[in-house]
Amino acid sequence: MKIIENLAHIHNEISLAEKRFKRGASSVCLLAVSKTRNVDEIMAAINEGQRHFGENYCQEALEKIDAIDNPDLIWHFIGPVQSNKTSQIAHHFDWVHTIDRIKIARRLNETRPESLAALNICVQINISGEDSKAGIILDEVDDFIEELEQFKRLKVRGLMSLPAPASNFEDQKIPFSTLNQKLQKLSISRPELDTLSIGTTQDMTAAIAEGATIVRIGTALFGPRNATKQTN
Ligand SMILES: *Cc1c(COP(=O)(O)O)cnc(C)c1O
Q1: Does the reported pTM lie above 0.90?
Q2: What is the model's pLDDT at position 106?
Q3: Which CATH class is domain 2-222?
Q4: Which residue's alpha carbon is at the smallest distance from atom 13 of ligand 1?
Q5: Which of 33, 57, 77 for mutating ligand 1's site (highest number of atoms within 8 Å of CB)?
Q6: How far apart (Å, rounded) are the C-alpha atoms in residues 154 and 5?
Q7: Which atom of ligand 1 is nearest to the CA of 225?
Q8: Is 202:208 a contact under the CB 8 Å cutoff?
Q9: In Å, what is the CA distance from 181 to each residue of 2, 171, 172, 176?
Q10: Which amino acid residue places its CA nearest to atom 10 of ligand 1?
């Protein structure tokens, strides 16, 4: 299957970028974005050792998490969180990358089972300032993180962003660099902030150059997605 080849290729690209940009070996985690992919496709990646998977749609994800039923996997929610899905997300995921509202964080905190570790959270930043995009603006991050600290069942780990697409490497690096500088500043007083979730198929290398610790890759791993309408 092509997925096996693709995965090997991505691992190679990541390790080349780690060397080229003086990042530690294995400092970048590959998050396989498996939205719209079926269980067989996900299993192909699991059989090659892939452990971190990212999903955008709660209902679709829960079906696959249940069908695959593998305790070694780490599931990341990377889509918009609807308030009526917070309990299910808090029960079945290890990470949520897309926190931009206190109300959602509060509900995740209230419903995170005591039997599970605190839910890992990234604050989503709208770095390109697009009205249509999810995320808070950079100036609000300090206050937002301070507010999140009241939630004991959440563990704030860092920042996530999906900047507007840019076609060349230098332009791709600009928003990533801004995010990285912000994370570095925040982590001076909060060393537990160790995560920068940036970079997709289009801009993975630029993200690694600018400090990504998690890259979220769908297309390069599983091939192009069909543009079918999803239900949450
Ligand atoms: C779909 C998605 C990705 C993966 O994008 P590709 O271009 O397929 O690699 C990454 N991050 C988020 C938030 C996504 O929704």
Answers
A1: yes
A2: 98
A3: alpha beta
A4: 78
A5: 33
A6: 36
A7: 8
A8: no
A9: 37, 16, 15, 9
A10: 216
